[in-house]
Amino acid sequence: MKLLRCFVVVLCFAISCSAAELPKCYQSMNHVTWIVQNADQVSAAWKALGLSDIKESVRVQFSGEYRGKPVTIRARQVSGHLGSLTLDFIQPDKGQNNAFTSFLSSHGDGIFSFVFEASSKQEMDKEIQRMRTLGVDVLQQLTVKEHGTPVMFTYFNTEPQGKYVLGLAYSPVAPAAGGKSMVSHFGAVVRDIPSVSAYWQRLGFQPIPIEHATPRKDMRYRGKPLWFYFDVGFQRYNPQFAVEWISAPATPANIYADYFKLHGEGIQHIGMPVDDLSKTVATYGKLGYSVWQAGAWGDVGKKDSGQYDYMDTDSIGGISVELLHAY
Predict the structure, then answer these.
(1) Are 119 and 25 in contact (CB under 8 A)?
(2) Which of 170, 201, 228 is the last residue of a domain?
(3) CATH number of the domain enclosing 315
(4) Residues 54 and 110 in one domain
(5) Is pLDDT at 14 greater than 70 in this prediction?
(6) Which of 170, 197, 232 is the last residue of a domain?
(7) Same domain, 266 and 159
(8) 248 backbone dihedrals φ, ψ, rounded to 5°
(9) If exposure means fewest CB atoms within 10 Å of the residue's CB, which of 31, 53, 91, 326 is most exposed?
(10) Pair 184, 7: CB distance under 8 Å
């Protein structure tokens, strides 16, 4: 359920010093680590949905540590842009023991990490130390060469309580300027929003304001009327990046419960605003993707209202696309 204020509210990082002040490295996020079983297949499907500037599938080798022990990860990787967002589809080789294969085993295809940009190696090291004082260890730290330039990735062990892996990346070469934004937010399905909020707030991030979404007559699940209540909270990290947190009941049947059965807790959808909802849904339909769940907010057609359709794209990366149109 989308409430328009989710898109316009600006919340400051009013976190006390005791909870730790959020470092500047979290002001820039344009990178997503997406773990899949078939990078070529998934990236080709997303190309039809707007993925651009796609780099050819390549064999890569990451070197570093996993849970404090040396690790070498061999994988296939395809990268591209969804507007200003960089997506890295990583297909780790089977038979390895690392954070990527562990994620696949636990969740299947899906978004593993949101990766923020560290301005220097020193800034990354300083954040690693800050996290350790807060009880968060490094899950995996890797270095890989991109166009001959070594890039370092640090993935923090935040998923157990935070429901996704928080990442940092550092490259001596400045990242390319982003294009037009195509993604408004990401949506996560969790059992208990207050506990997730308390965890991220302890690390210096803003709390998650929670609302109780009420049923609407225009809600649909697989084309049939849907009448149910659920909790939702919207958390904005910075102007670029926001997460919608959703906790929903198992019954009646709904897209959030479906995701939980398929993948467990985690990132369930990507929100993409569109100018013409019906036309875009029809385009998705021609590609073989149907509407999974639909609804609206406000007085449809008037100011401060809108409609949304969740498209059934789980087969191409374990993530649904939420198409939104705000009036």
Answers:
(1) yes
(2) 170
(3) 3.10.180.10
(4) yes
(5) no
(6) 170
(7) no
(8) -130, 155
(9) 53
(10) yes
